[in-house]
Amino acid sequence: MISVVIPVFNEERSVALLLDELRSALEPLGQEWEAIFVDDGSTDGSFAALTRLHDQVENVRVVRLRRNFGKAAALAAGFANAHGDVVITIDGDLQDDPAEIPRLLVKLEEGFDLVSGWKTRRRDPLARRLFSRVFNRVVGSMSGVQLHDMNCGLKAYRAEVVRGLPLYGELHRFVPVLAHQRGYRVTELPVNHRPRNYGRSRYGLERYLRGFFDLLTVSFIGRYRHRPLHLFGGLGLTLGFIGTGTLVYLSVLKAEGHAIGGRPLLILGVLLVVVGIQFLSLGLIGEMITSQHAERVGERERSQALVDEVLE
Q1: Core vs surface per residue 28-51: b (16+ CB within 10 A) or e
Q2: Mean pLDDT of all residues in the chain?
Q3: How far apart are CA 267 and CA 10, in angstroms?
Q4: pTM
Q5: Strand, coil or helix: what is 122?
Q6: What are the backbone dihedrals phi and psi of residue 154, each rounded to the nearest 5 degrees, phi first?
Q7: C-alpha distances out from residue 57 to 36, 76, 98, 141, Å
Q8: Sheet holding 114-119, edge to edge
């Protein structure tokens, strides 16, 4: 089965049109499919329109969030309610072209676990395209996932990729990075992008600024989630060595009869040693928390999460 997850926020005029396009794209494939619309606290008539679709079409399901929690929460709710072994995500504003879904599925069958759309000809304002290009390059350099369009709403996943995916805040931008960190095979495919006819864009400069903070979160989780001491311990030892070296130097000066009580270097040396010890302690505490979590999860479940296939 193919599950199509569509986050919706004030898209009253487009949801019925999108369903028609999904039907035209998916029914020729001859596979069972479902459309899961997630109403992310819409304030217009979106939920009423979705209710009508649900009553009229058998394979339409609707999930309504209590309020507007954001796209990451909407996707997480859609993933939790998806029954298919393949999951497609597509935005509800009709800018993503459902006719591209069969091509994504073909690419998925080549052995990839996640296929992300790449809007080669974006129908967005120039400023947004420029900010997006810079953002994608920074994300690629920091994460190692070289995609031209990290935040494209049109993606295809194997179901195991989205199960247990930690989506909160605005981490939906980094789903390919999160999947890559778990060992899944990620690629991209050029797709058609259409002008916006309904609604308005809710993306601005402030979202890209918040996105860079989220990138730090994703990078930290991916690299140091299971070894926090490598980060905090390394920082602590570095600062501690510098501080100790500074204090040793001042001790030599003191032994030679020089006054060191009024030197700012003395305060700096003590501060570096104290901060270094704090970082080292924070790393050890992180290791204790990680160890307890690993014990609760269990050896078999933890190892199975890393297995791609088993030949017997």
Answers
A1: eeeeebbbbbbbbbbeeebbebbb
A2: 84
A3: 57
A4: 0.75
A5: coil
A6: -90, 110
A7: 12, 23, 18, 45
A8: 60-64, 33-39, 2-8, 86-89, 155-158, 114-119, 186-191
